[in-house]
Design goal:
The complex is a heterodimer of chains A (599) and B (127).
Chain A lengths: L2 H30 L1 E3 L5 E3 L2 H12 L13 H30 L1 H17 L5 E5 L3 H12 L3 E6 L18 E3 L5 H6 L7 E6 L4 H14 L4 E5 L3 H9 L4 E3 L1 H14 L1 H11 L17 E4 L3 H12 L4 E5 L2 H10 L5 E4 L5 H6 L7 E4 L4 H14 L4 E5 L6 H17 L10 E3 L1 H14 L1 H11 L3 H15 L5 E6 L6 H8 L6 H4 L12 E8 L2 E4 L12 E6 L1 H12 L1 H9 L7 H22 L1
Parallel strand pairs in A: 3-4, 3-6, 4-5, 6-7, 7-8, 9-10, 9-12, 10-11, 12-13, 13-14
Antiparallel strand pairs in A: 1-2, 15-18, 16-17, 16-18
Helix pairs in contact in A: 1-2, 1-3, 1-4, 5-16, 7-8, 9-10, 9-11, 9-16, 10-17, 10-18, 16-17, 21-22
Chain B lengths: L2 H21 L11 H18 L5 H30 L6 H31 L3
Helix pairs in contact in B: 1-2, 1-4, 2-3, 3-4
Classes of the chains: A alpha/beta (599), B mainly alpha (127).
């Protein structure tokens, strides 16, 4: 018996008992009071008739006085029973209605529907805790990759927040995800639950979700959002598989931008959501940087600037920050006390010659003001903005539009006002997408970061040649019996299969698929951008990038041995038994003829 | 003392005793089996069944099952009575009376099991 039904039964016990008692009294009275039948004889109603009479009277149907008109004594009793039975029915109905409106009852109904949904999922699914911007992006990524997702969110009315816009039905539970019971309801302990993604806005909650999930199901993959180092260490000690820190991820992105804009572009293109437009190439001039706001965010970015040996001018309103800055940093960098929203401070920081500015205070209106002022003073400056409140996302988008239009008037090239905006939800969603869809992508990015800017430039031009103006799709193929039976079979025969065989179009001759092989993973070794001649081995993992359609176009070569043969030898091999024998015999004759002619 | 338990046990035991009262006597003699007693047995059994709803424990499930068995038998008996007296109007012949009483005997057995379970539960209860 589930929660909802037992709640109904328990609540309805009293009203139903009352109805039974009232009915039995009414029936008893009717059978005991004498009436007069059509022939004038004294007549007693039987229990059967009395039950019939009470049933239609109590429910206010009122068929009348059946089978004979009632005597006055009977009528007196009927008056009484009408009132008591009708009132007890209303009482029962009132209880039912108040039960339906009861919050607890509605929660019980929702929970039982959720449990039924969980039971009906037959493929791997992920539990997403927290349905904010990040949660939404993660769910869309999961659904695109044909995983199922379920949501646990504390706030009600999820459907209004756009859960109904998703590709398919996503079961949702309104509950506190840090409560282990709600994780259990979501089936975290089940085998088909592959992962738990904790992206609520609170670190403590995410930590608790990670701990409970790992205790409920040690094999489950846990991805956590975290903003503070202390929590991160705690999460790691409980075996969280991936911890996504928006500040750290963003500082990595920032270092990419400083190191090589092309590298950043590769990252942007490969990890972006498929429905977002591709970001345009960026350009950074040489010169010093201005960093406004020396808090947690500012310090991270300052470290990256130091790594690249870039001179930085720091603006912060706090005196103490200045003292501690000079204590910890032995560089002779300038530290200006102020907010940076006014032209005077920015001019003092040398805005005219600066290459870039970081609006990194923890106040969105200050940041926007800094950006606007800086833009007016120096048109070509590279702007990094920090968005603190989720609700201010629209402002950063608006300011972009505004600047774009004003730029068009000036016939300047199109430059967005903030070239790089730190949006925690966006940063996290990107990282989690990569983890879920193509774990090799993270390895690729890490390896690529050590390459020179020139390498990045070549790669980006190859990439843009392949994808044109479309969004690139990244996918992974693993060489094994399940996913690539044809390759596995051919490798079993000891044949040499090269990368070019599988990237070749099996339909048209000598035509390659327009895709790039980004990475090949063999054991613990990685081959970055493997060449066409690279030999494939069993259990290799290959990361491709191209248009989504090529993933499907590649499938026949991987799964059908005859197509693989055709690709490798450019001849159609016989498939039926007789034809095989025939061709075999013919080939023998041919060979003899050839050898004879040689002789 | 728990008032809920008192009411609960009261109705269950009353269901059994009334059932016994109706069952006791010559099996085919209508004089020994009053129709009002059958009515009372049905009403008390209905209430006893209702009391058992919503208990999620295993014992609760067993108790509910015994009550449902008793209800099925008693309602079958009352339908036999309705057929005999009202629909076919043959009156209470010895054969129909014995059918009704036999059915109520089955219901009594279910009620006995129910009371035994109640006693077991009570004996397991320590505080």
């Amino acid at each position: 018996m589930n929660e909802a039904t037992s709640l109904v039964l328990r609540r309805m016990r009293t009203p139903f008992t009352l109805i039974i008692l009232v009915y039995s009294i009414a029936i008893l009275g009717l059978t005991l009071i004498p009436g007069i039948d059509d022939k004038g004889n004294t007549w007693y109603m039987s229990i059967y008739h009395a039950f019939y009479f009470v049933s239609y009277t109590a429910t206010t149907i009122g068929f009348g006085e059946i089978p004979y008109p009632l005597s006055d004594a009977q009528r007196l009793w009927v008056i009484i029973i009408i009132y008591i039975t009708v009132i007890s029915w209303f009482y029962a109905l009132g209880t039912v209605i108040s039960l339906i409106q009861n919050k607890k009852f509605q929660a019980a109904i929702e929970a039982s529907a959720f449990q039924r949904d969980i039971k009906n999922i037959y493929r791997p699914y992920y539990v997403v805790c927290g349905f904010g911007e990040t949660g939404k992006a993660v769910i869309n990524a999961l659904l695109e990759e044909h995983f199922s997702a379920v949501v646990i969110e504390r706030k009600t009315d999820l459907s209004e927040q756009g859960l109904n816009d998703t590709l398919e039905h996503v079961p949702s539970l309104t509950a506190d995800a840090s409560d282990p019971a709600s994780l259990e309801v979501a089936g975290v302990h089940l085998d088909k639950c592959h992962g738990v993604i904790a992206v609520t806005s609170k670190d403590e909650t995410n930590l608790k979700i990670a701990i409970s999930s790992k205790l409920l199901h040690p094999d489950v993959m846990v991805i956590c959002r975290s903003e503070y180092k202390e929590h991160e260490e705690n999460m790691l000690s409980f075996g969280s598989d991936h911890i996504v820190n928006p500040y750290e991820s963003f500082s990595k992105i920032f270092s990419m931008v400083l190191h090589s804009p092309s590298m950043y572009l590769i990252f942007e293109w490969l990890t972006g959501a498929p429905d977002k437009p591709l970001s345009p190439p960026i350009n950074i001039r040489k010169g010093h940087w201005i960093l406004s706001g020396y808090g947690r965010f500012g310090k991270q970015l300052h470290k990256e600037l130091l790594k690249q040996n870039i001179q930085t001018v720091i603006i912060d309103p706090s005196d103490e920050t200045k003292k501690s800055f000079h204590k910890n940093n032995h560089t002779n960098e300038k530290f200006i006390i102020g907010i940076g929203t006014d032209a005077a401070t920015l001019t003092q920081a040398g805005i005219d010659t600066a290459a870039g500015i970081i609006a990194g205070t923890d106040n969105d209106s200050n940041n926007l003001s800094i950006i606007m002022t800086a833009r007016q003073l120096n048109k070509d400056i590279f702007v990094v903005g920090r968005q603190n409140q989720m609700t201010n996302k629209i402002l950063y988008e608006k300011i972009n539009e505004h600047y774009l239009t004003s730029n068009k008037k000036n016939k300047n090239e199109l430059v967005p006002i903030a070239h790089l905006v730190m949006q925690p939800s966006e940063v996290i969603a990107r990282k989690i997408r990569a983890i879920l869809i193509a774990p090799l992508l993270i390895d690729f990015i890490q390896l690529a970061q050590h390459k020179t800017p020139e390498w990045a430039n070549i790669t980006i031009s190859r990439l843009s040649a392949v994808i044109d103006n479309n969004n690139p799709y990244v996918w992974t193929e693993t060489i094994n019996k399940e996913t690539t039976p044809a390759i596995a079979q051919a490798l079993g025969y000891g044949r040499r299969i090269e990368l070019k065989h599988i990237t070749q179009n099996p339909v048209t001759h000598n035509k390659k698929f327009e895709c790039i092989t980004l990475l090949l993973k063999r054991g613990d070794d990685f081959i970055l951008l493997p060449e066409d001649k690279t030999e494939l081995k069993a259990f290799d993992q290959i990361l491709f990038c191209g248009l989504r359609q090529f993933k499907h176009a590649m499938l026949p070569t991987l799964t059908d041995i005859t197509i693989l043969n055709f690709v490798m030898t450019s001849t159609n091999e016989p498939q039926s038994y007789i034809w095989k024998k025939l061709t075999h015999a013919l080939q023998k004759q041919d060979r003899r003829a050839v050898s004879r002619s040689i002789r | 003392m728990n008032l809920e338990k008192v009411i609960f046990s009261f109705f269950m035991i009353l269901a059994l005793t009334l059932n016994f009262g109706f069952f006791y006597g010559e099996i085919d003699d209508p004089i020994h089996h009053n129709v009002y007693e059958l009515f009372a047995v049905i009403v008390v059994n209905l209430i006893a069944t209702l009391m058992k709803f919503g208990d999620k424990s295993h014992m609760g499930a067993m108790l509910l099952a015994t009550s449902l068995v008793a209800m099925v038998q008693l309602i079958a008996g009352s339908i036999v009575w309705i057929f005999a007296v009202h629909i076919h109007q043959t009156g209470l012949t010895p054969s129909t009376v014995s059918t009704i009483v036999a059915l109520s005997g089955g219901a009594m057995l279910a009620n006995i099991i129910s009371v035994i379970l109640l006693m077991i539960e009570a004996s397991m209860f320590r505080r």
